[in-house]
Recover the amino acids of this structure.
């Protein structure tokens, strides 16, 4: 089995949900974390995730500090555009 590329989604509004939908189409990728300042947005995004969400990290609040926390907790790199 190939190692999957793990994605953390920062911002689970319209574009974040679009990213989740696109990642779901890639067999070698999975969403492992979602961070947003709005808990309702996170809950909507959870419904789009195709893999088992029991192991995912969900955070809300101060997104900048939560991004650092997610990166450290999950040992995933952060890329920004």
């Amino acid at each position: 089995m190939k190692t999957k590329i793990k994605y953390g989604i920062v911002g689970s509004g319209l574009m974040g949900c679009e990213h989740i939908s696109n990642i779901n189409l890639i067999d070698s990728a999975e969403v492992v974390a979602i961070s947003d300042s709005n808990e309702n947005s996170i809950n909507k995004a959870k419904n789009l995730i195709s893999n088992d969400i029991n192991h995912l990290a969900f955070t809300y609040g101060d997104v900048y500090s939560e991004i650092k926390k997610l990166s450290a907790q999950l040992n995933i790199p952060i890329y920004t555009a």
Q: What stands out?
A: Residues 5-74 form one domain.
